[in-house]
Amino acid sequence: MKDFVIPPADWTRDMGTPASRSDIAVTLTVDGIGVTVPAGTSVMRAAAEAGITVPKLCATDSVTAFGSCRLCVVAIEGMRGTPASCTTTVAEGMVVHTQTDEIARIRKGVMELYISDHPLDCLTCAANGDCELQDMAGAVGLRDVRFEPGENHVYARQNGAPNPEWRPKDHSNPYFTFDPSKCIVCSRCVRACDEVQGTFALTIEGRGFDSRVSAGMASDDFLTSDCVSCGACVQACPTATLQENTQIAIGTPERIVKTTCAYCGVGCSFDAHMRGETVVKMVPSKEGKANRGHSCVKGRFAWGYATHAERILHPMIREDYRDPWRVVSWDEALGFAAGRLKLAQEQHGRESVGVITSSRCTNEETYLVQKLARAVMGNNNTDTCARVCHSPTGYGLKTTFGTSAGTHDFDSVEDTDLALIIGANPTEGHPVFGSRLRKRLRQGAGVIVLDPRHIDLLDSVHRNDAWHLPLLPGTNVAVLTAMAHVIVAEGLQDDEFIRTRCDWDEYLAYREFLLDPRHSPDEVARASNVPADLIRQAARAYAKAPRASIYYGLGVTEHSQGSTTVMAIANLAMLTGNIGKPGTGVNPLRGQNNVQGSCDMGSFPHEYPGYRHVTDTETRELYERVWGVPLSDEPGLRIPNMFDAATEGTFRGLYCQGEDVLQSDPDTTHVKRALASLDILIVHDLFLNETSNYAHVFLPGSSFLEKDGTFTNAERRINMVRKTMTPLNGYADWEITQMLANAMGAAWDYTHPSQIMDEIALTTPSFAGVSFDLLDREGSVQWPCNDKAPLGTPVMHIDGFVRGRGKFIHTEYVATEERSGPRFPLLLTTGRTLTQYNVGAQTRRTDNLVWHAEDRLEIHPSDAENRGIRDGDVVRVASRAGDTTLRALVTDRVAPGVVYTTFHHPNTQANVVTTDNSDWATNCPEFKVTAVQVSPSNGPSEWQEEYRAHAELARRILPAAE
């Protein structure tokens, strides 16, 4: 694999203004060079296409043209004056001159004015070498400034008196500094906040000389304002007004390595700006096809965990989980782990051990972990954290469409006329996609939100039609089936699509099922608390939209009817023909960076890579030939089965890579008992996490900055992860798994992850054309990538479904066994927040704690008043499974009878109260419905006290031997 490093001169190419999407071509001449561009293109961009750079300050290709700096003026034959090239669009036959004597004088005069009101500390400025103002002064040939020093925005005092226009630097944000003295009021930061992020946190206050950038009200700073720290303003700033603190501290970067974010399932591409092996900053890549040059606070800034002081860098072992840890060599740790695993199998049978892998690991790493189980341990006891999040997606979409993945790429959102959002909060959980969706809503698309909470998308500026169906947790199936009932009853279905693309007889049976009065909005309203007329309005809006898309998240899958809900979603799309064309589709928003990939790689106990069942003889024989060992045709244990078997004494050993099951899985008390029952628990991770409290071996892992490989995002996009630094622990994660396999008797000899991908391509039809060389050339591809689609498949099911004809499934609503009642009258549902990620192991070790230092319980004012609870009070949350305490947040974002919390902090441990109820098809836990009681509390629960005591005991590390 070639070293994908970009020299400084080629870091970025700013075209000045956004590209036009017109399919009409226009030809013009710029400085004697003919160029053809789409109609609507700016003269500035046309010049850039011809290889000619027009000086600019207020223009950048991430936001619409503004035309305020007057540096980009040009001469156009037949046009009076010198128009701004950024706001002037091309015309057929136009003749443009970008450099004349008059234009040179204008530009130099403009630059003089800017420089006269700007600090001249270039030698010590953090933006030195990366400052557009500095570059443009050189570009226009400015050598002298004629203006005498006078009143300006730079100095605190002029003529001995305080300058009221001067403001100090704003250091409130932990990641960047705002220096108003260096602001040229180009408004790029304001426009980026408005147009790219959609937060509208920044504004220009004042007029003329008094104009300045303001973050919110006069009393606000960047931390207290509505700013979400996405970094769009920092990226857009042409001076050192907004500057990353890391660049201020470290200096100007010297090279770039392209890689992929290791947080959510959007899969943002980043340019890691490096000095040596030190990351200076992470800048979202303009070439990134998932993020299109945008980012969120996590990917942009929260990567410091990779070098955090709490990271474990040496292997450790102990005989009993109650003993202190002992630091040992890699050979001793791997020998100890392998010996214990083999002993467990000798004493308790081949099926007594297994593996769990993580969606935070690369495709190549998860492929090796499932191979470890199947080819070395000799069983199919392999599972992944997708079990507890999106396993119903795989089951539901494979049943209805024939493939276990989303149908469309993220770009498709730009063509949607209506988005149905169910069980997802994109601006919090998938913020870069959330920004793209919010932008489409501002352009006029409608939105339907099915969620127990009021989410931010409902407050999108300039939104048109919006419907919020605040259904009770657990009633997704009922409401979606009622919407389908309305569509069929009112004749809004797409008969042509159904006849040509689906099984007509199955549809007729499904239609009869739908028209039963029990599925009518009036009946469903009783169970869901959603008014019948609101269900009808939403159904009509979805069915009548020219192009409607569905996006869903864990609020769909983490239910006892998670798989049924996914199939109900697929039914809606097929009923209305909203599949297989841009702006439509069924799109699961995967929670973690490689949820899709971990499923693709065969991490489930019943499937090989590519979703082929272990009982399929042809597939099994293929792997037996490639791996050189006989393989079992008996499906293995799922994660819940492993825990049950452990408490029963039949499952004795577990290798857990990158997954903190004690914090992330339901019914924490049961998980704790299971882990404590094991003879050997191997935790492979960056930090001593909650699961490691019961481990016997700790293998230190490597971060995404220290490895090569691939992630597959929620749109099936395979992105490269590239190493920026030498692994601090000595090895990449794939190497550690290989060493463990070889310690158990295997003879694996991979020398680079590209070889693992070659094996994946050899054995997996949907990855048949994928290689590191292809990804280096194309940037990314979306599977299936094979002979039929050598560059991948952005939109699936265009001419037909993978399974042949789409399959309608009867979606009978079956109420969850978890019911509220006199003892537990409230329903608890859980979710995520913008600044923290999953169990918080990474983000809690960054400055993101400034925004979310603890999990809090959202409770409606009426429920709080009835219990004597005030905002900020410590409350006890109790369920049939357990209890915990946390502080209350009184808010009307939740409906009466519903409470909500996040699960990012282990000292709260929301999963202590969640039950072992799960999806009927996949065992995905029912995190979203737990009956609870909330009451005032004086302090931590008994469980919390026990946890703290044990965690302190379990994390003792003996001093290293001399």
Structural domain count: 5
Helix content: 25-40%
CATH domain topology of the largest domain: Rossmann fold
Strand content of the residues, in percent? 15-25%
Shape: globular
| Proper CATH architecture of the largest domain | 3-Layer(aba) Sandwich
Oligomer: single chain
Stretches where pLDDT is under 50 for at least 5 consecutive residues are 1-11
Give the beta-strand count. Answer: 37
Radius of gyration: 29 Å
Strand order of the largest sheet: 16-15-28-27-26-17-18
Mean pLDDT: 93
Distance between the first and last residues' Cα: 41 Å
- CATH class division of the largest domain: Alpha Beta
Largest sheet: 7 strands, mixed
Give the count of helical stretches.
29
Overall structural class, as computed from helix and strand content, comes to alpha/beta
Provide structural commentary.
- This protein is an alpha/beta fold and 962 residues long.
- It folds into five domains: 25-139, Ubiquitin-like (UB roll) (Roll), CATH 3.10.20; 148-306, Alpha-Beta Plaits (2-Layer Sandwich), CATH 3.30.70; 316-387 and 594-713 and 728-759, Rossmann fold; 407-588, 3-Layer(aba) Sandwich (Dimethylsulfoxide Reductase, domain 2), CATH 3.40.228.10; 826-954, Barwin-like endoglucanases.
- Strands 16-15-28-27-26-17-18 form a seven-stranded mixed beta sheet, covered by helices on one side. A six-stranded mixed β-barrel has the order 32-36-33-35-34-37. Strands 21-20-19-22-23 form a five-stranded parallel beta sheet.
- A hairpin with a 4-residue loop joins β34 and β35 (883-890).
- The longest helix is centred in the middle third of the chain and has 19 residues, at 330-348.
- It is globular.
- Mean pLDDT is 93; it is low at 1-11.
- Keywords: 2Fe-2S, 4Fe-4S, Iron, Iron-sulfur, Metal-binding, Oxidoreductase, Repeat.
